[in-house]
Amino acid sequence: MKTINAQLAGCWSLSVLIVCLLTGLKSQAQTVLTVTGEVTKPLTLQTADLTAMAHTQVTGKDRDGKDHQYSGILVVDLLKQAGATVGGELRGENLTKYVIVKAIDGYEVLFALPELDAEFASRSIILADSVDGASLGPGVGPYRIVVPGEKKPARWIREVKSIEVRFAK
Asked: How far apart are CA 41 and CA 139, in angstroms?
């Protein structure tokens, strides 16, 4: 009888552990993107938050050499929502700020803050969630930075998990 009770207790403990792990994974899966660093309102965004934001369309040439239509959120809009210094505030020492975009696999790319701002740059850099009318596939999405007009898409970082604003000092 003690052996059966010990086995049942072991199964119950294993079941609780599995439920805890799955709940933890579900919580992590809901947090899709963070915007942190030199901002006044750090953001932790879920898929629903990003889906509800205004989307912009851009055309860009991917690694396949073909033009594709991407839809997503202007990165500067995410930065504005987080309270980053953009627009008219982007002068003086604020011009030394930069943005690091990080992917799930550890890949990182850098942008000078002014190149993301429409008051300085003539192109729209987006956090894309779809290409040619379809969601981004596994290994690319759910979100990808798209930089139209770059000769090489090396900064078109896939599986974006965070955006961090920093000073270059």
From this structure: 30
Q: Cα separation of 146 and 12, whole Å?
A: 48
pLDDT tens-digit readout, 7-34: 545 544 444 444 444 444 444 446 689 9
Q: Where are the domains of the chain?
A: 31-167
Per-residue model confidence as pLDDT tens digits over 76-91: 999 999 999 999 999 9
The rounded distance, in Å, linking the Cα atoms of 20 and 27 is 11
Closest to 145 measured CA to CA, from 51, 37, 33 = 33
How far from the centroid of its chain's Cα atoms is residue 117's Cα?
A: 17
CATH 1.25.40.10 fits domain 31-167 = no
